[in-house]
Design a protein that fits this description.
Radius of gyration of chain B: 22 Å
CATH class of the largest domain in chain B: Alpha Beta
Radius of gyration of chain A: 22 Å
Number of domains of chain B: 2
Largest interface: A-B, 58 and 48 residues
Helix content of chain B: 25-40%
Oligomer: heterodimer
Number of strands of chain A: 17
Distance between the termini of chain A: 41 Å
Shape of chain A: globular
Order of helices and strands of chain A: HEEEEEEHEEEEHHHEHEHEHEHHHEEE
Helix content of chain A: 25-40%
Chain lengths: 453, 436
């Protein structure tokens, strides 16, 4: 059922978008000279922060056919390789944001019902949004675009590679696992409480979830019964009516979707874990998770990570106990920690946010850079493909003018799959693939209202 | 009426002379010698292996180890390998006017019942025990301007504070500047507070209302002077006009919050018509009128440098603004106002990083440090008391383990008027409680 829905969903678009996709792929020069990336690139002389196995200073990185083919003090690239002299510069994996609402034109919450798991963020994705461009200029190569937090069970995320200027479907991260957004706490309480609807309390929050999963279990049982009949050769078996909402929930219960939960307070982490166990699914990550430092060992044992702000606090009551040491304290207790933006502003400078972790809690530079690269990739489930400079991974790389964890750093060049997508030295935007008109992102702060504005 | 009189007196006194701390409130400040550190004086360069002597709440000596004699009995603070610099000054905050942004009852940010509210005094609402202040202080912020939020054309009058002491000690000056705003936000257009449009619902209305208000104030001033000459007891004071008098006389600065180029031009035209002493604020979308701004010879507070550029502008159009203004000789300050973080001043602790970010986009380092110290002090009448490591200034000093503008740097100790401030906040207490 769940497996039926996704191909159908994508096929509807294929008919419309394949011609566009082909146009982009076959005729890349949309009014601007645009070449396919060189087969081999070697970066020489840079301080290489690998995110997985320390820093090489200096080191070399060889990119072949869009993948990392070598990394070390020296690499054995062919003589034909394009050499990038990066002496005095820094090279890191592309920055990854595991919590963004960019490029959705405000279509972040289908806040008309607290359970809307069949919403797909891909349907709102605007690949010409200026927010994507600005994030790219900040070194961001991969983003998880999430539903908002108005609903207990919001909708299904889209994972993009920030190949700004390419066709919409060419920006999707190929074969990235699906994620679904849950939320609890003040936001759903406020949204539905203000309408005098369920849920207006945390009691209501969690019972709404259980009720939804009870429905999903019943739905799954109906289908199981039908499938069993068909298997027995029962020609009269009548298929149950397909229900997109319940199919999505069934996918959660079957473990087909990574569960990403917006919540702030320690008690909510515990309750969410208890419900996950009750219904048999795993929680990939808590997002925001500002009180994780209070219960980190318990959550670490469940294998759930966090995607957190560095130092936001006080914008709402459930952010009252936020402390900037949360990330490092939680990491030291064994929780997988990523930093995220939840903001079209902060997404442009996640590297500097990572630098704060050196200040607040004494993270090593290696640990700090991992929070915005490899650990963020893990939250999304693409850490086997990107997030570190390791042989075989996608060549998603950023060249910086300065130590990327310092206040003074900015991205000079950004590569995705070995292709240069941003070059600050170019006049104008510095984009290499984008033509046309950017769409206004339309917001400074958190698109999900997390900044209290 | 009496209250207002007292306040005006306080304001004038404070601007004229340093505040006199009440004896009962004064914590003891010892004589302290900070030795061996790298001193960033702001006013006269960097001194390696310097000595800074704090006595009686003031800077008593500053110089190299060879130049400065350490007074007998002074407490020695070894700052070898550390960096010492003047306390940072945030030119726009809401300290003491907000606690939890989303909780209306903890917010005294702006009186939105009318657009012209010069008689709103931040000093009346200032909640000195706010959790926000110790949090900012731990990152080296020692002083700040507290302003109302920007909902109104004239939102009220600011205070200039230090981030330690009793409430009275903290308010170094009340009614130190007029908080004015101009642009789309102040319009009472359709949908303002969910209601129907009321006057002024357009920029035309906003400007006309301001001009009428200033004319009415001038008229009031004339009648008041005439009544004063006759010793006319029957003259009825109007607090709104009274509040505006020092500003129309050009005695105190008017901080005008404005973002767009064309709005800046419009409001400056009005300000010049009434000879206001202007400090421009925000100006984050003014890339095409920077020469004009420089020609006006007015100081500018830039913030947030993290404001979004317009679609189709280069990604760093706002990041480069401090550098572009400084290059044109404009006296700049940088505020903590955070484009993407929590609204209000929960992010004030990130003030030095905003300045550092501007350095990353071309602002000379010394200009960046000045933009969050001496320049702010000078804009608000504290140039001879704060903002640099100079003899006679208030001993507001920070010791850190590195470059103050770098996000990785850890502040080790903050002194305010020579007192070593406890390096504790609600957040450190939570950290320590859960680190046991």
């Amino acid at each position: 059922m769940g497996s039926l829905r996704r191909p159908l969903h994508i096929c509807v678009r294929c008919s419309r978008f394949v011609p566009l996709l082909l146009a982009t792929a076959c005729v890349p020069a949309l009014g601007r000279a645009q070449q396919s990336p060189p087969a081999d690139i070697v970066f020489k002389g840079a301080t290489v922060m690998t995110a997985s196995h320390g820093t090489l200073s200096p080191g070399q990185v060889w990119v072949h056919a869009g993948k990392i083919a070598g990394v070390g003090a020296t690499v054995s690239a062919p003589d034909s390789a394009t050499v990038v002299d990066a002496t005095g510069l820094w090279l890191t994996p592309g920055i990854i944001d595991p919590h963004s609402h960019s490029a959705l034109d405000g279509d972040v919450n289908e806040a008309t019902s607290p359970v809307t798991p069949s919403m797909h963020m891909i349907d709102a994705f605007d690949n010409r949004s200026a927010d994507l461009y600005r994030a790219l200029a900040g070194g961001v190569t991969t983003e998880l675009l999430l539903h908002g937090s108005a609903n207990m069970i919001g909708g299904q995320a889209v994972v993009i590679k920030n190949k700004f200027g390419l066709d919409r479907d060419a920006m999707l991260f190929p074969n990235a696992p699906g994620s679904i957004k849950f939320a609890s706490g003040e936001n759903p309480m406020r949204v539905y409480g203000s309408r005098d609807q369920l849920p207006s309390t945390r009691m209501g929050n969690f019972e709404v979830m259980r009720m939804a999963f009870e429905d999903a279990r019943h739905y799954m049982a109906d289908w199981d019964a039908y499938d069993a009949k068909v298997k027995k050769g029962d020609k009269d078996a009548v298929a149950p009516k397909r229900d997109l909402k319940l199919e999505a929930l069934a996918d959660v219960l079957r473990g087909k979707l990574y569960v990403q939960i917006h919540c702030y307070r320690a008690d909510e982490f515990l309750t969410e874990e208890a419900i996950a166990k009750e219904y048999g699914y795993k929680i990939r990550a808590f997002h925001h998770a500002l009180e994780m430092y209070k219960v980190a060992p318990q959550i670490a044992a469940d294998g759930t990570g966090i995607a957190t702000f560095t130092d936001w606090w006080g914008f709402k009551d459930e952010a009252r106990d936020a402390i900037p040491w949360n990330a490092v304290m939680s990491m030291r207790q064994g929780v997988k920690v990523a930093l995220k933006s939840d903001s079209d502003d902060h997404i442009r400078r996640l590297n500097v946010e990572a630098g704060k972790m050196v200040h607040y809690g004494g993270a090593t530079e290696d640990e700090a850079i991992r929070m915005v690269t490899l650990n963020a990739a893990w939250i999304i489930g693409v850490d086997d493909r990107t997030g570190s400079i390791d042989v075989g991974k996608d060549a998603d790389l950023v060249l910086w003018n300065h130590d990327p964890l310092s206040t003074y750093a900015h991205a000079l060049k950004v590569y995705i799959d070995g292709d240069l997508f941003f070059d600050a030295s170019l006049p104008g935007w510095g984009t290499t693939h984008f033509n046309g008109v950017m769409h206004d992102g339309g917001g400074f702060g958190s698109d999900d209202g997390e900044d209290g504005q | 009426m009496i209250k207002a009189l007292v306040q005006v007196t306080v304001a004038v006194t404070c601007l004229a002379a340093p505040p006199v701390l009440l004896a009962a409130d004064t914590p003891t400040s010892k004589t302290i010698a900070i030795t061996g550190g790298k001193l960033l004086t702001v006013s006269h360069g960097t001194i390696e292996n310097g000595v800074l002597v704090l006595a009686d709440g003031k800077i008593a000596a500053v110089g190299t180890a060879a130049e400065v004699k350490i007074p007998k009995g002074a407490q020695i603070v070894d700052a070898k390998g550390l960096t010492v610099y003047p306390g940072l000054i945030d030119p726009e905050t809401n300290f003491g006017l907000t606690e939890i942004s989303a909780d209306a009852m903890t917010n005294d940010l702006a009186e939105r019942s009318d657009e012209i509210m010069p008689h709103m005094h931040v000093s009346d609402a200032f909640h000195s025990e706010t959790d926000l202040i110790p949090v900012a202080r731990l990152n080296g912020i020692t002083n700040a301007v507290v302003a109302p939020a920007s909902d109104d054309s004239i939102a009220g009058q600011d205070i200039f504070i230090q981030l330690y002491g009793s409430r009275n000690q903290m308010m170094l000056a009340t009614d130190v500047a007029l908080a004015m705003n101009y642009g789309a936000e102040q319009r009472r257009s359709n949908g303002f507070r969910g209601g129907h449009a009321t006057y002024p619902s357009t920029r035309m209305g906003l400007v006309t209302e301001l001009r009428q208000t200033f004319l009415d104030t001038q008229d009031y001033m004339a009648k008041r002077d005439a009544a004063g000459k006759k010793d006319d007891k029957a003259f009825k004071r109007d607090l709104k006009f009274e509040a505006l008098i020092p500003y129309l006389k050009g005695e105190r600065p008017v901080v005008i919050g404005v973002y767009e180029s064309y709005d800046v031009e419009t409001i400056m035209h009005l300000a010049q018509e009434f000879h206001l002493k202007v400090i421009l604020n925000h100006v984050t979308q003014t890339q095409d009128v920077l020469d004009e701004i420089a020609a006006w010879k007015v100081p500018v507070i830039i913030g947030s440098i993290y404001d979004a550029p317009r679609a189709n502008e280069r990604y760093d159009a706002v990041f480069t603004l401090p550098a572009e203004l400084a290059k044109r000789g404009v006296k700049i300050a940088i505020s903590s106002a955070d484009g993407g973080g929590p609204a209000s001043s929960h992010s004030s602790r990130n003030l030095p990083y905003a300045a550092g970010f501007a350095v990353g986009y071309g602002l000379p380092y010394d200009d960046a440090l000045k933009a969050i110290t001496l320049n702010v002090a000078e804009m608000f009448g504290f140039g001879d008391k704060l903002g640099s490591l100079d003899v006679g200034k208030m001993a507001n000093v920070v010791i850190a383990n590195g470059d103050p503008l770098d996000v990785r740097t850890d502040v080790k100790q903050v002194y305010i008027q020579g007192i070593a401030v406890p390096m504790v906040s609600r957040q450190t207490k939570l950290r320590d409680e859960y680190s046991k």
